[in-house]
Amino acid sequence: MKSDVLIIGGGLMGFSTALQLAMRGTRCTVLDKDSPGRHASGVNAGGLRQLSRDPAEVPLSVAAAEMWHNIEALVDSDCDTHFPGQIRVAENSEDMLALEERAAMVRALGFEHEEIIGRKELYKLVPVLAPHCKGALICRNDGYGRPFHALDAFRRKARSLGVEFRASTRVDALVHSAGEWQVSTPKGEFRAPVLVNCAGAWAGDIAAALGDTAPVRPGAPMLMITERLPRFMEPVIGAASRKLSFKQMQNGTVLIGGAHLAELDIAQQRTEMNWARLAVSARTVMALFPQLENTRIVRTWAGIEAFMPDNLPVIGRSSASPHAYHAFGFSAHGFQLSPVVGKIMSQLILDGQTDLSMEPFSIERF
Amino acid sequence: MKEHYPLVIIGAGPAGLAAAVVAAEHGLDIALLDEQPSPGGQIYRAMESIPTERAELLGTEYQRGRNLVSAFRGCGVDYFPDTQVWSLNRKREIGLLRGKTPTMITADKVLLAGGAMERSVPFPGWTLPGIMNAGAGQIMFKSHGLVPADGVVLAGSGPLLLLLAWQYLHAGVKMQAILDLTPMRNHLRALPHLPRALLAGHYLTKGLAYKKDLKQAGISTLHNVSDLHAGGNEHLASVSFRHKRRQHSIETDLLLIHFGVTPHAHLSRVAGCRHDWDKSQQCWRPQLDGWGNSSIDGILIAGDGAGIGGARTAEHAGRLAALQAVHTLGLIQRRERDRLGGNDRKWMRDEMHIRPFLEAFFHIPGKLLGVPDDDTIVCRCEEVTAGRIRAAVADGHSDSNQVKFLTRCGMGPCQGRQCADAVAHIVAAAGGNSIARDGHYRGRPPVTPLTLGQLASLFPEEME
């Protein structure tokens, strides 16, 4: 089967890239070894967060936020997004100092989206928060969405524009010959002049096959979700000096994360909960929301993600192979970036350039 | 409770109790964990506290359990009743909850003896208050002597329906009707298995005797019933159905339903044991060898949790798995294991003679399992209808897990216990695939409720 661009990986990055390319008339095929959004894309925490991003990611994240606020225009679905803000609380004066420095740094970069709020406003926004907090860093137009719904919307829209998708299609080998990529899979050969690696936790193998060095470390951040509770807060809560991501979802359940890792057998694609680390996560929740003590945990899980040594993604051209591109390694914070990454990839592939600086994300940094 | 045991048995039904007795004879240090307050499992529930008169009403099969329970009481294992197991993994770390206190213990060998659960089959109106599983009705009778006071309709297909009707008859319960949804064609389906079933003829004789008693008492059993509907606004008010090409309706405020039982496999799933679809039993069952070894080293499974075989089979399987544990822990040689297990292996084969016949006779029609009406709720926790599940399949979501991600079916407090099989059947039917391919929800711990406060109290030494 032949197309203009062949994308390996049917997660959000792959479909977002395919969608943007298809919008400009390019014929794309997306391959996935499992089902769409089977790993990180489908089961992540769904945070739409500009707050506390690495400075290198801030311009991308701000551009992505703008796209999320108009996501329905792009994919015909609101992806169940809500924008009640994201807050990072300071539990002591050292925390507060660190957050103030952070806010100043972001302002110095020329952005206004992160601001400091005092105790009074914090407790107005989150009345149920334990009483010891001093203040917080807030990004008022941050929020969250439902990852699998977003994945589904991107997939449908891409398909409606002619993007081909093949599930359960693992890449066995790839070669570049006579100006095109030839990718062999158990379901036949796929050919295209351009190849894109959006293979998430498995992207290191694809990069290696392209001759690039990419020290991808697969990891599986654990999440837990509670029974439904009456609505008690709107914004998403993090903490300045603890691992926490805490939000009450649209249906009243509370989603708790914090990038504590599960035990992972990548060969078997199997994760196992690390209860000692989940206990730490539960203690963090008890410290900040003690009224949840008797709330039942309904489910825990961990999706398999690609982590890079510097926790920054790889976005851009292959350094070793012609007409090959990468978008992977989002290190557990890729969901929010996905619409803009698709756009950047389409620009890199079709125009050879993009407005935003891709320097920090080059694969040549390894 | 110790932090580590050479053998932990989970479940105090026939398989778990028999296993404990055998393993204890070989001097093993054993913990037996069970969620009930007293030993016996569902089948021999309340055995130690039941009044003689009620035990007699329940029949001889029930009373068989008395010896087993008393042998267990005498065997000296660490027995922990009222204990929920919320997690099990490949390293044989067991998360449990006693009272309100959670603990994690480890074991060299874990024997799962979780028994069976009733198959849940969605039909129009099945979620109305006033509708219960027949098994739940039987539990109330065994534990508390509670029986329906103002009439009841029994409906479904399976041996338990007949047994409960017979028990109710003797307890003086007013039964308005017994609606047997077993299709007539099942008689043909079962016929080839009859000769082998006759080798375990006592089961057939018993079943026929129950039927005769019911008939003599004038209880009306309608056979080959279809199109079961439960009606009512806030509560069940009537049951309607088709019988002999006519539509019927019975006013009632209590309906007990039963569509057979399936293995209680939540722990084996969450641990990651491999499971296969059993076409004849219409359920998933863990992959096991003849000694109860699962696909995970050190995790053994016995009894109905390994595949439906009934209480007597469970006892044999429990003993065999215990011998295997004793052997692999180095206490007996392989030859000794084989010698000690000889009779149980033989008796277990004898017990199995009846199963192919029963499975064919009580085969649940694919239409009932796989194609409920669009408006019928399948996942009651999240109120997901069959129509929404089919719409997700039509939209390209090709297995149970993808349908779960999209529709939230199976994501409620029951963790998909009730709807997993039903959703798998519907997904397979809608996609035109085999249920074995379209799968089952992946197991997600905790399998029983655990609060944030309880989790926070675990591993106090672990730092941020």
Walk me through this protein's architecture.
The complex is a heterodimer of chains A (366) and B (464). Chain A has 366 residues and is an alpha+beta fold. Chain A contains 10 helices and 23 strands. Chain A has 2 domains: 5-64 and 147-216 and 309-365, FAD/NAD(P)-binding domain (3-Layer(bba) Sandwich); 86-140 and 221-302, D-Amino Acid Oxidase, subunit A, domain 2 (D-Amino Acid Oxidase, Chain A, domain 2). In chain A, the strands form 7 sheets. A 6-stranded mixed beta sheet of chain A has the order 8-2-1-12-23-22, sandwiched between helices. Chain B folds into 3 domains: 4-117 and 263-332, FAD/NAD(P)-binding domain (3-Layer(bba) Sandwich), CATH 3.50.50; 120-259, FAD/NAD(P)-binding domain (3-Layer(bba) Sandwich); 366-438, Arc Repressor Mutant, subunit A (Orthogonal Bundle). Chain B is of the alpha/beta class and 464 residues long. The chains are: A alpha+beta (366), B alpha/beta (464). At the A-B interface, α7, α9 and β20 of A face α16, β22 and α19 of B. β20 of chain A pairs antiparallel with β22 of chain B, so a sheet runs across the interface.
